[in-house]
Amino acid sequence: MAETESRMPEPLTVGREDNGAFWRVTLGGRKGNILDAALTEALAGVFAEAARAPSVKAVVLDGSGGHFSYGASVEEHLPGEVARMLRRFGSLLHVVLESGVVVLGAVRGQCLGGGLELVSLAHRIFAAADARFGQPEITLGVFPPAASVLLPERIGRAHADDLCLTGRVIGADEAKAIGLVDEVVAGDPADAALAWARAHLASKSASSLRHAVRAVRAGLTRRLRTDLPALERQYLDDLMRTADAVEGLEAFLAKRPPVWRDR
After folding, report:
1. Does the pTM exceed 0.90?
2. Is residue 198 part of a domain?
3. N or C: which end of the chain has fewer CB within 10 A?
């Protein structure tokens, strides 16, 4: 009997709806849809392709397996990998913004860390009742550079401070109350996102929508270009030289409580 070849799951799948006007991009790959190098690069490729496809009006982002994403790979945060990880993820955010397409987030289950940073770029976020949102980086002794730029833009300084400084995880109803989520839905949030796109975007010019997207996001695009590189330098040159940043990451991977040295 021939051996069955073991294959890694695809990082994502792309479904094209309404003659290609709307794309449903479903994160897959590793358990929890971890935003590792393969998934990050695949997402950047999809948005680069969407930018070149003049008929695309909106991209719906959702996750497979009952969750949106547990966030970026903790292993890739360790010294030796973290610079490449930050560079890849920052590049993805720029590609998403510069694509000009409307982005709709559809969240079930966990949406944490880099997953929340990614979905924060969405123009509207639809969440199932079981959705959970958080920036838990501080519990690992680090901070989220992209969220430090994106969350104040979306939910205001006070709520961004709360999530980034406490690391707490909030439910869908609280996320809606603070403006992070636009709609909490009973069914599949991706279906709700597609229904919204059909109701509000199908009759619009794709090229005009792209000009409108770039216009309303011009300030955010400028801030991401200037502020994110400075925060990444702080992360790499200052934070990652502290004992606690490395301790927090290693403790997480070892499944033990961190022992902070406060330096």
Report:
1. yes
2. no
3. N
